[in-house]
Amino acid sequence: MEQPPSPPPPPPPTSPGLGKAGVVPSRRLGTVRGGPMSSPPERRARLSSPGTSRQFSEAREEVRRRLRDLIEGNRVMIFSKSYCPHSTRVKELFSSLGIDYNILELDQVDDGANVQEVLTEISNQKTVPNIFVNKVHMGGCDRTFQAHQNGLLQKLLQEDVAHDYDLIIIGGGSGGLSCAKEAANLGKKVMVLDFVVPSPQDTTWGLGGTCVNVGCVPKKLMHQAALLGQALQDSRKFGWAYNQQVKHNWEAMTEAIQNHISSLNWGYRLTLREEGVAYVNSYGEFVEPHKIKATSKKGQETFYTAAKFVIATGERPRYLGIPGDKEYCITSDDLFSLPYCPGRTLVVGASYVALECAGFLAGLGLDVTVMVRSILLRDFDQEMAEKVGSYMEQHGVKFLRKFIPVTVQQLEKGSPGILKVMARSTEGPETVEGIYNTVLLAVGRDSCTRKMGLEKIGVKINEKNGKIPVNDVEQTNVPHVYAIGDVLEGKPELTPVAIQAGKLLARRLFGASSEKCDYTNVPTTVFTPLEYGCCGLSEEKAIEVYNKENIEVYHTLFWPLEWTVAGRDNNTCYAKIICNKFDSDRVIGFHILGPNAGEITQGFTAAMKCGLTKQQLNDTIGIHPTCGEIFTTLQITKSSGLDITQKGC
Amino acid sequence: MAVVVLRGPRGHFRWRVPTCTRGVRGAASPAGGQQDFDLLVIGGGSGGLACAKEAAQLGKKVAVTDYVEPSPQGTRWGLGGTCVNVGCIPKKLMHQAALLGDMIRDAHHYGWEVAQPVQHDWNKMAEAVQNHVKSLNWGHRVQLQDRKVKYFNIKASFVDKHTVCGVTKSGKETLLSADHIVIATGGRPKYPTHIEGASEYGITSDDIFWLKESPGKTSKPATADVALECAGFLTGIGLDTTVMMRSIPLRGFDQQMSSLVTEHMESHGTRFLKGCVPSRIEKLPAGQLQVTWDDHASGKEGTGIFDTVLWAIGRVPETRNLNLEKAGVNTNPKNQKILVDAQEATSVPHIFAIGDVAEGRPELTPTAIMAGKLLAQRLYGKSSALMDYSNVPTTVFTPLEYGCVGLSEEEAVTVHGQEHVEVYHAYYKPLEFTVAERDASQCYIKMVCLREPPQLVLGLHFLGPNAGEVIQGFALGIKCGASYTQVMQTVGIHPTCSEEVVKLRISKRSGLDPTVTGC
């Protein structure tokens, strides 16, 4: 059996050094609400996340527990130094308000330095005074006075612990659910609010957020359907024989995929129930700092309060704001459950969503055109992006570059109907028009942050894009409100990132660990017909950060063994790594274009986490015959200008 | 119809030993004098060619000899060795053919309307595979030419420490001498010696890829990875296939993984005769083969009728006709492999051995290639790096692929002790399996770690689609000294199978259910 973590120790002895006012071991919420001590053995086992709690020595854990007890056990807790004038000011403020407070003078306890260090981990603040009000980290002297002036302090002081929940999460997507489950695992009382506002085409779906319903999952399955179409063509070369007439049935595919999604929706609800998380299918909106209004589909309003909140509402597809867009166009919100085959399709945009959808629609045999305003796959390596595009072009996808749609008109209703699209050039007065059955907009996504009362409680958003800025512990400017996932400013919009961030946030909030989410070297894969996997920096970014002369790019074209007999394009798949010459040729960018790019990239990401260098790549033995092995034999540098076309094995 | 793989008693296949007559012709110089070549490589397989090309690139005068002794069934092939001709390449292509069969079945779940019946044409596949192999043979010859490596299609044997005698197909002899000689002759499939009809009627992996006609119902006595791979793709293209094995499958691999591999094959139509040892093979008047075996469990004798019997009971190194004693090169008398040191040197300092022929080396193409390349670099001063044979990743291309790197669970427990080993594991379901309604009961991952934080990763085992692609990167991670903590800090790529590796949370010790549910 895995070692369960030791039960929480008895309340720490009131050590002589611990504060003048002593410790009042009154409400220790962790245990009152079923902390590890009262949780069933199964939960305990999961609690012992190896490598996190174990990283800290026993002594350090002890300090952490003492601090947590102090923070949770006192309405106002001030960590200060006896000689610090700022600390004195804060103490005077609370005295003048007639509020009891507890003090720990770090210069008067034996292990003060240690305490300060752990305090930094807990609060992300190095200096004193360091003030906590009702378990919420207030900040230092200035922020306390500021909070006093704008009323936040008074609100915090009023709210005591009489909240309905320890944590309310708004948004039941990948990030929200992972955070909720983890918090519940830690014995907390948790609620998830999830509500899908129907798309302009009236599409709606179940619990689980974008990824499960209108993102990664259905997308990868439709991509797989397209790959199987390719496999059918290949299979004849490998000796399989059957009637030449092979047709694709959109409805059959969509039904199978939607059935799978329904089972996932159901699975999520079941999991939440098993974990004891309250799930409410209502729209959440802040009305007070700790109070939220939940509006159901039928318009029924209910109010809930919580000590802490996590915003995980994600994003929804953007519209162009041109005549006819909301009336006649669809987005990725609608495509995966479209009850009829979209037919001749115009995809507007060059995001990964646009290229992925265009790719699988073409793979299913549809006539597909992609209208691109400027570049493909912005923020991705542009050499790779162009290769992704040119492969699609070779396989029948048409590209209309440097055009933007101006109007969409319906010529005929139907399933699908007939639409006329007018577009104009971004470079001149030229216009084109085209007739399509379906127009799919994939021009970006907007955060769902503007209609949830954030302004009422003072949570700042970036007015331009609606994104929420947070510090490195996912905390917004309002201390008890956190945000994770796609709504975050400047963070990757990826399911696994949101899941990781959500889980770690819950652990930090409820004391299981202090580990922060690491947003560097996050891998991703674009599931275009030729898949593109990457991790780390693009070549452009690497040049920008390190300068061209300080990096070395190794690259090669390759021909997957399975493609040879199938007679598929040689010298199309491409592998590239970018190394930092002045740091032992450390790999700072990894890029692969080829089949199973996602499966290949994952392991290399783990290696990059461990500081992968070019030498280590050279020293590693390949697995033969795979595509991944190409990275163990990369020899040609881009700067050499040598030929990278493949000959022999 | 069936293919049988039998694991038979330890036996030795005897090659006809060539006699290089002493009529020494040409300028064979005595040891110590001026030699014809700087480097002579005997064996044009992956290792030999890599070594030769690297040496030539470093400006040396290099020769390669290669000669394929026809199999007892008369099969022969071109330059490139086992991997290219009768190993990895044709095997993975036929595996791909079988996977495509699965995909055709999946396709209707994804909306593709494929009219029945779907049939497989062995000849068409074999021809396509063979054409690709022939193009590789040609490519190897061109590469040797480009790098000015002299290629001799001769059967080589030692005359003395620096001289080798080569005999062509037509019996013409040539003497070649060199300062350094590398033996890279590889191995060939083993035939059982005490089973009546074994070599007369049975075939091996040397023949299967070059068969002109479908092997039909096949039986294979075996336990080697080759056996399961062949049985897997033969079943996959619709043949009735039986594997006969004396004891355990995939000896040397993690046993839990191995039994999952066979469990999966069984549930997909491959028959297994466990604990059975063939005793004789007879040809029936209709041309079919009757195999008789002893069932050790019941103590009874069983028989079955098959079209083809494929032996996959291991391989023997190609050292017997090299006249190694003439050069003073020592072999292990038990298995005839050549004894080598860390520098790949044999008992004779200027004679080296790499690849499958060398004692204690993994029998894998990429290890041979790297060993050959590094050897050439050491010999000709480009580098002093030794080949690191630890943590070599590999993949078995069974219908459900099995990729691994590092220690098996058994090895880890033996080396570090049960109480110091923590195993994290998960049963997962690949996303693509859901819609296709495929059974994922054997899709399983396990990571073997030290228990002491930060829990160094000792081994990783992955059973599922694209296992080779998944394992490659993690093999690097392990090379970089990855800990469990670091792997867990790695962000996944969604939705893939490999992301399940970075989500392994359940330890075996905890006894919790390792089935992955939800996302």
UniProtKB/TrEMBL annotation, chain A:
Highest taxon above the source species: Eukaryota
Broad enzyme group: oxidoreductase
Every FAD/NAD(P)-binding domain range: 165-502
Domain Glutaredoxin stretches: 76-137
Record GO biological process: cell differentiation; cell redox homeostasis; cellular response to oxidative stress; glutathione metabolic process; spermatogenesis
GO CC term, one of those recorded: mitochondrion
Domain Pyridine nucleotide-disulphide oxidoreductase dimerisation: 522-633
PANTHER family in alphabetical order: GLUTATHIONE REDUCTASE (PTHR42737), THIOREDOXIN-DISULFIDE REDUCTASE (PTHR42737:SF6)
Record-given protein name: thioredoxin-disulfide reductase (NADPH)
Organism: Nannospalax galili (Northern Israeli blind subterranean mole rat)
Lineage of producing organism: Eukaryota, Metazoa, Chordata, Craniata, Vertebrata
From TrEMBL, chain B:
Domain Pyridine nucleotide-disulphide oxidoreductase dimerisation: 392-503
Molecular functions per Gene Ontology: flavin adenine dinucleotide binding; glutathione-disulfide reductase (NADPH) activity; thioredoxin-disulfide reductase (NADPH) activity
Family membership: Belongs to the class-I pyridine nucleotide-disulfide oxidoreductase family.
Covalent S-S links between cysteines: C83-C88
EC class (word): oxidoreductase
Active site: H494
Pfam family, one: Pyr_redox_dim
Residue stretches making up the FAD/NAD(P)-binding domain: 37-372
Cofactor: FAD
GO biological process: cell redox homeostasis; cellular response to oxidative stress; glutathione metabolic process
Binding site for FAD: K92, D356
One of the record's GO cellular component terms: mitochondrion
Name of the protein described by the UniProt record: thioredoxin-disulfide reductase (NADPH)
Binding site for NAD(+): G314
Keywords: Disulfide bond, FAD, Flavoprotein, NAD, NADP, Nucleotide-binding, Oxidoreductase, Redox-active center, Selenocysteine
Keyword NADP: yes
Taxonomy, superkingdom: Eukaryota
Catalysed reactions, semicolon-separated: [thioredoxin]-dithiol + NADP(+) = [thioredoxin]-disulfide + NADPH + H(+)
Keyword Magnesium recorded: no
PROSITE patterns xrefs: PYRIDINE_REDOX_1
Cofactor annotation comment: Binds 1 FAD per subunit.
Enzyme Commission numbers on file: 1.8.1.9
Source species: Nannospalax galili (Northern Israeli blind subterranean mole rat)
Quaternary structure annotation from Swiss-Prot or TrEMBL: Homodimer.
